[in-house]
Amino acid sequence: MMGLTNLNSTHLSSAKITAAQDAIAALDTALDELTHNLSADDRKKYGSINEQNKLFVNKVDDYNHNQPELRSPEVEWDEFNRDYSSRKTMDAMISKLESLTTRKINAKILHDFDNYQAALIDYSFTTYKAGSSAPGFEDKYRDLKQFFVKNSTSTAPPEEKK
Question: What is the pTM of this model?
Answer without folding.
Answer: 0.72
